[in-house]
Design brief:
By secondary structure, the chain is of the alpha+beta class. About 20% of the residues lie in helices and about 45% in strands. A hairpin with a 3-residue loop joins strand 5 and strand 6.
């Protein structure tokens, strides 16, 4: 009898945990590159914003200044959690329910995944930790995906960076 009770408790725990998973927040390939914006400063240094979007409730804007670009182009990740890195800023919302909130444990990590010397494009991978938009909730999700910068945008980013990379 005790074995059945333990098994029942374990099964209920597994089922409840499975129902609580955030499977509907898979975003692989759903955000598409919209463009870039320049001619502004971030932390008193020339910067670029990369804009990705699916619609008005699913978007990501990443702003990097020359210092963060130099780090990224050197093959190192660049990240910002809780506004500790003034050289990168990110604004991401998913379904309007999960966001990067600068006052709570959330942020983004960027890696230069691949540079295609034939097409002169670059693939950048990001991992974002988002928090519930409801301040009273402690729910978090992690979104991870990649996007490709076309040749024209990649060229602008390389020109903005103090250290040129192919």
């Amino acid at each position: 009898m005790k074995g059945i009770t333990i098994a029942s408790v374990l099964l209920a725990t597994v089922l409840l945990t499975g129902c609580n998973q955030q499977h509907d927040h898979q975003i692989h390939g759903t955000l598409t590159h919209v463009g870039i914006a320049t001619d502004f400063d971030l932390n008193n240094t020339p910067a670029v914003s990369i804009i990705l979007s699916k619609d008005t409730e699913h978007y990501l804007t990443i702003s990097l200044n020359q210092h963060s670009l130099q780090t990224l182009l050197a093959g190192q990740n660049t990240q910002n959690f809780n506004q500790k890195n003034k050289n990168i800023d990110a604004n991401l919302t998913w379904d309007g329910h999960y966001i990067i909130d600068k006052t709570r444990s959330s942020g983004i990590v960027l890696d230069l995944a691949h540079v295609n010397n034939t097409t002169h494009s670059a693939k950048i991978h990001y991992t974002a930790t988002l928090v519930s938009a409801k301040k009273e909730s402690n729910k978090t999700i992690e979104l991870s995906d990649s996007f490709t910068l076309p040749a024209d945008d990649w060229k602008v980013i390389q020109e903005l960076s103090p250290k040129k990379t192919n």
